[in-house]
Amino acid sequence: MQRFTYALAATDLPKGFGYQLYGALNALAGDPLATSWHEARHPRVSQHLYWADGTFYWRVALWGDLAGSNRLSAAETDLADRLAGLDRLTVAGRAFALEGLAHEALPLEALLRHHLADQDPPDRLNLVLRSPLAFKRRGHFDPLPRPDLLVQSLVNRWGTVLEANIDRMETYRTLADDQLWPARLRLRTASVPIKGSHIPGSLGEVQLILKAGAPLRRFLALLFALGEWSGVGVKTALGMGGLDVTFPGWTSLPAGAMIR
Q1: What is the pLDDT of residue 70?
Q2: What does each C-alpha distance from 61 to 3, 12, 24, 141, 161 come to in angstroms?
Q3: Cis peptide before 32 (omega within 30 of 0)
Q4: Taking residues 72-77, what's their average pLDDT?
Q5: C-alpha R_g of the chain
Q6: CA distance linking residue 243 with residue 45, whole number of Å
């Protein structure tokens, strides 16, 4: 898994910029890789867009093997090389200067070992919603970061990657609905223009209390750490659902990627 964070030297960004950035990212990736993203229900790429201290940040994560295809794996490696040296990007006919701030490469096995063996499970997690988060339910967009929707989104994305038994994953989801509780919310909403529509999403901070036993707390902490790479909710490939996860004495790896 690799993640790249850039600062963008611009203050007058057009509406729907995340969708336009995704088009530029597809052009960088090339047709085979871009087509695989388009066809996948959960493409193994995410981009998160947010402002902090007057600076606009663009974070791109490539987060997994693409179906074991040598051709696509080579294309992903080539894209990572391009992103590592990227200092200028043309988006919808306009050139933007980029400042590369971070490049993290982390094997999935290292993250699994860190969360399942090398540290104690947390009893709570602090989520910072960096870019607007929303879920699709019954044909409508729900901007509330409900614990059951957060876990369901993460299970849908990472269950196959973790090769977990589907019945076991459903058990985790049910237990999380009963034993994961919001303790503190500091939220505001924002509207994200994407392809002619406006999606409501939430920004801010959420603290979750994990009331479960240690094994489930370990697994939930792992899921949320993976969520830093994939994003949570809808339209993560278009810039939504980016978050950081923290708690004193606990680290999601790699902690150095967080923007303060």
Answers
A1: 67
A2: 4, 25, 15, 24, 16
A3: no
A4: 85
A5: 18
A6: 15
